[in-house]
TrEMBL record:
UniProt KW Nucleotide-binding keyword: yes
Polar residues biased stretches: 310-331
A Pfam family matched in the record: RuBisCO_small
InterPro entries reported in the protein's UniProt record: ATPase_AAA_core, P-loop_NTPase, RCA-like, RuBisCO_activase_AAA_helical, RuBisCO_ssu_dom, RuBisCO_ssu_sf
Residue span of region Disordered: 292-331
Annotated organism of origin: Plectonema radiosum NIES-515
Coiled-coil region list: none
Protein name (Swiss-Prot/TrEMBL): Ribulose bisphosphate carboxylase small subunit
Highest taxon of the lineage: Bacteria
Similarity section: Belongs to the RuBisCO activase family.
Keyword Hydrolase tagged: no
Length: 419
């Protein structure tokens, strides 16, 4: 099977990697290349094809490795893998890169429900430090004065707007938005079905039939074509014996005939997969569960706990929210902020943290139900302030579409201290 490498993708990676191995006087080269775009468009696979074509060795880190119950472990892992890759360049005498897949999944902040941990801070700080000093990357507790070989870092993700802004600035990270055009899709899909006898005209018609589907849709569809033969094989062997027949069997592996890869059959199977996608999109079961949970939570909160909203005097505009049994009213300034956030179509978020964790910035998010009415938002905030009187409380405004923060304001400090 011959796989297709998009020329734009090959050009971008080849230039970035090669430039990092050259010493160009007076030119500061970003160490990190961030490849971002829609899910399922083959970002990682295209990288692998480019690495294979250029003979580049890769050290991999998954976004899932960027969190740990032990603070500092992910940051140490990044430094360790970077140093190992630098040693590989020295020993092998060839280009090597460090690649972090799904960086936004491990270090991004998607909404008010994403907890910002110490490890997230340390990962961001470590990557920024390596980008600024690529030849001087030390492990905790030791120091090596010998300069390292510079190691290009490739990171992939879907939405880099969720990452820490100083990390993705141009001096540290070069960005490449990967969105395959029609010619790219035709080339990639043609490579997927190359062994199945589809002509270029048929591939073009196939791609045009599903113009909004990602690359992995076509790859998954090819796998689904074999389902009928595998189902027949299971029935022939028997459900009770299929495990012994497939795993560690003395018999030769089963052979399958070339299935029906006619264009009409592919389109029929593609339409079936699209209908499955729509059922997932239309189910919205999580919204139903959240509505039920909100109903239970609202029933469990005594109405007497939430004090009615009154209009404070002008002198109380800058007074902090007092919560130790005396008053849980929001200041006029905070009420105005809530009003402005909701009027612009943003969502309300609430975060809290105790005094010890405040020093490390380890804020915890409170699951706020969908609030549209200003009175409901103020009542929720006042109730939350009363429940967390000994902690810092922060009001957050979130833009739903871009999933980015537009407002962050501390509205309470421990024991009612002013902000």
């Amino acid at each position: 099977m011959g796989y297709y490498i998009a020329p734009r993708f090959l050009d971008k990676l080849a230039v970035h990697i090669t430039k990092n191995f050259l010493n160009i006087p007076g030119v500061r080269v970003p160490l990190i290349l961030g490849i971002h775009g829609r899910k399922g468009e083959g970002k990682t696979f295209q990288c692998e094809l480019v690495f294979e074509k250029m003979g580049i060795e890769v050290t991999l880190i998954s976004g899932g490795e960027l969190e740990s119950p032990d603070a500092g472990d992910p940051a140490r892992l990044i430094r360790l893998r970077y140093r190992e890759t630098a040693e590989l360049i020295k020993v092998r005498g060839k280009m090597c890169v460090l690649m972090i897949n799904d960086l936004d999944a491990g270090a991004g902040r998607f909404d008010e429900g994403t907890q910002y941990t110490v490890n997230t801070q340390l990962v961001n700080a470590t990557l920024m430090n390596i980008a600024d000093n690529p030849t001087d990357v030390q492990l905790p507790g030791s120091y090596d004065s010998n300069p390292l070989r510079r190691v290009p870092i490739i990171v992939t993700g879907n939405d880099f707007s969720t990452l820490y802004a100083p990390l993705i600035r141009d001096g540290r990270m070069d960005k490449f938005y990967w969105e395959p055009d029609r010619d790219d899709k035709v080339g990639i899909v043609g490579g997927i079905f190359e062994a199945d006898g589809l002509s270029r005209r048929q591939v073009e018609e196939f791609v045009d039939k599903f113009p909004h589907q990602s690359i992995d849709f076509f790859s998954a569809l090819r796998s689904r074509i074999y389902d009928d033969q595998i189902r027949n094989f299971i029935h022939q062997v028997g459900f009770e014996r299929i495990s012994l027949r497939v795993v560690n069997s003395a018999e030769k592996p089963p052979e399958f005939q070339n299935p029906d890869f006619s264009l009409s059959h592919l389109i029929e199977m593609g339409n079936f997969m699209v209908s499955e996608q729509k059922r997932v999109e239309n189910s919205q079961l999580v919204d139903e569960y959240n509505r039920l949970n909100r109903g239970r939570n609202n029933q469990s909160v005594p109405t007497s706990v939430v004090a009615p909203v009154s209009q404070p005097s002008k002198n109380s505009l800058n007074e902090p929210a007092k919560t130790n049994g005396s008053s849980t009213h929001l200041t006029l300034e905070t009420q105005e902020q809530v009003r402005q956030i909701l009027s612009q179509g943003y969502k309300i978020g609430i975060e809290h943290v105790d005094e010890r964790r405040f020093r490390t910035g380890s804020w915890q998010s409170f699951a706020v139900p969908q609030i549209d009415a200003e009175s409901d938002a103020i009542s929720t905030l006042e109730f939350f302030l009363a429940e967390h009187s000994g902690e810092y409380v922060r009001l957050v405004g979130i833009e739903p579409k871009a999933k980015r923060r537009v407002v962050e304001t501390i509205i309470q400090r421990p024991n009612g201290k002013s902000s």
